[in-house]
Amino acid sequence: THVCQVTNVSPGATVEQLNTLFGFLGEIEELKLFPSETQAAAVTSKVCFVKYKDCHSVQVARHLSNSVFIDRALIVIPASDG
């Protein structure tokens, strides 16, 4: 797979911050953050999907699990490419 799912993302996290963090691990094709920054709903956490050009970057990204980003420990798992 070329995609990793990142859960327990802080509500204050932005696409730019996540792109910078995960961009150190490999070239990113696409990054999606849910709910998006434009949605004004009060959420307790966000979910992010990162699609890398190289599938090996997903395995490296898994090492960020339990790393505190802003105020939460991230959970990073491989996800299906669909």
Topology:
Blueprint: E1 3-9, H1 15-23, E2 28-34, E3 46-52, H2 56-61, E4 68-69, E5 72-73, E6 75-79
Antiparallel strand pairs: 1-3, 1-6, 2-3, 4-5
Summarize this structure briefly.
The protein has 82 residues and is of the alpha+beta class.
- Derived from helix and strand composition plus strand pairing, the structural class reads alpha+beta
Q: What oligomerization state is this entry in?
A: single chain
What average pLDDT do the residues reach?
A: 92
Q: What is the name of the CATH architecture? A: 2-Layer Sandwich
Order of neighbouring strands in the sheet with most strands: 2-3-1-6
User: How many structural domains does the protein architecture include?
Assistant: 1
Structural write-up:
By secondary structure, the protein is α+β, with helices and mostly antiparallel strands. The chain has one domain (3-78): 2-Layer Sandwich (Alpha-Beta Plaits), CATH 3.30.70.330. 18% of the residues lie in helices and 37% in strands. It contains two helices and six strands. The chain has helices spanning 15-23, 56-61; strands at residues 3-9, 28-34, 46-52, 68-69, 72-73, 75-79. The strands form two sheets. Strands 2-3-1-6 form a four-stranded antiparallel beta sheet. Strands 4-5 form a two-stranded antiparallel sheet. The longest helix has 9 residues, at 15-23. The relative contact order is 0.35. The model has no long low-confidence stretch (mean pLDDT 92).
